[in-house]
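User: Sorry, folds how?
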Amino acid sequence: MAKLIENIRDLADVESIEKTSLSEQNLPNSGYDAIARWAEKTPDKIAIYGLRTGTADEVPSTLTYREFFQQMNQFANLMNSLGVGPEDTISLLLPIIPEAHICLWGGSAAGIVNPINSFLEVDHLVGILKSARAKVIVGCHPSISPDGWGKIETIKDQLPDLKTIIQIGGERRDFDGGVMNFESAIAGQPNDRLLNGRKIHPDDIAAYFHTGGTTGVPKLARHTHKGHMLHSFVLSKMLAPEAENTSLVGVPLFHVGGATCGGLYPLSYGQSVVMLHPDGFRSPIVIRDFYRNAERFGATSLGGVPAIWSALLNIPSDGIDLGKVTYAMVGGAPLSVEVAKAVNDKLGLPMVEGWGMTETHGFAAYTPLAGRHKVGSVGIRTPYTEMKIVELDSAGGVSRECNPDEIGVLLVRGPQIIAGYLDDRHNVGSWVNGDWLNTGDLARIDEDGYLWITGRAKDTIIRGGHNIDPALIEDVLYAHEGIELAAAIGRPDQRVGEIPVAFVQMKTGVEFNEDDLKDYVRDRIQERAANPAEIVAVEEMPLTGVGKIFKPALRLDITQRIFQRELEAAVKSGVSISVSVNNHKVYGTMATIKVSADDPERAEAAALLCEDRLAGYAVRFEVTTS
């Protein structure tokens, strides 16, 4: 019998766990079943705290595990009464509120749930809802979150499969104008069992999570119940599964960060979650009162994307008791080494990083809390997930596997990987050699099995954890009569990781005007996050040997430009700054800053200022003086 591993320390522990087959781990069949266990075991324990204002003095709403499970049953039974079966879709346009978890895990016991970002533009929402063939849509009253409900009313007539709309909050009513009130509707349903009598199979589809960005063609990833339960299990081994743990949630539930990492995992292990505000970290109040809420709820971990940690470093924590917090976590985008160190200096907490995708149901690599922490690495692979770094050939196949510490394309496979995309067209080119998922990330794995993300082979721009398809920007630019070539890429940003910028090559004789081009794009792209913050003109676009635009060169170019501008604006006269950015065999990209001045002391002072100014970027750099 394999050795029992409570908390993973290294890759050897991962391999030891894998000596026991996944079927022998006796995992719950579904999130519904996992929560049912805790409703029986600790019925009076608070499962979910809900805040509507996010302030540290707000009295929260609460759901015990008994109440949580009862309302999950009621919602599932309501879906059953509306004719929802295991292959029907329940789309959720919901903010960060307790009802979202009720609908997610209760809904997945009746049909297939489809959480959606309500901040998306109407056309994009229609595309997702049509692809999912939504039979029921659940939204919330504008008094809870003002954005989504108006869009539901706008698009409902464009959805041929839609039968019922449910509104959370607002005036209680049984049915009015095609809209059913959530509270009234579930109140009449049995709360102690599932009326559909369904026995959920682990391989059944639990959810459709959309990916592919806030713009562009939506892709719906098919999450399985097995994938959800395995993800919760491996996180419990990487972290600490004690039921006394409490976590704060400011990440939306249409994202795996809020739904599975910050939601289903703790709820599957009898922990408590605090939903900080319907808008989560988008609310300035949540950032302002984050540490005070951590103190009063007895948070045992603190988490967020890199942009959130950069903001939290500026919030005072003196005099606040964070004694129960044992670690800080980060995911969603690469974290600056300096930010990780600053968190440790400020809060005295180790920063554990992880890597994952919508397609992996959440984290597929994680820094083991009980093991070695390598700042800048996203940890080791989780149990039952295979990873390898490869070099791909021109046809997209594997030409060879890379050596330790050699950068290549990251491939993953295993039962935690999605059951493909809903639309088969999106599966073309996504899988290599049969069942290996091409993540699109460039990475290396060191001799200890730690994964280091060094860049991306794919073009996707990740802004604050949201994906932006560069083709949307490029298509608009190519429609401009004066542009010959166009390319959109991500520019490093200290707050949100990346922001979109564009390079253009104008046609002969056409004058470049950045402001005019930005206005032109803005009029044609309604998604504000996708509008390029900068448009750069080049005389000649870098091309590959087959005539394609070579974007890696543009990424080095824009990084050099932004670093040069920022540092020149920061230093005093009499100091010269020279920035060069190049590929690096270990870190992917390395910026070299040379500082020179007649006075050595002035040069040293300027070098320290440069280090401070660049500390928040997820780009490795070195500063030298002369």
Observations:
- The first helix runs from residue 11 to 17.
- Residues 489 and 501 are 6 Å apart (CA to CA).
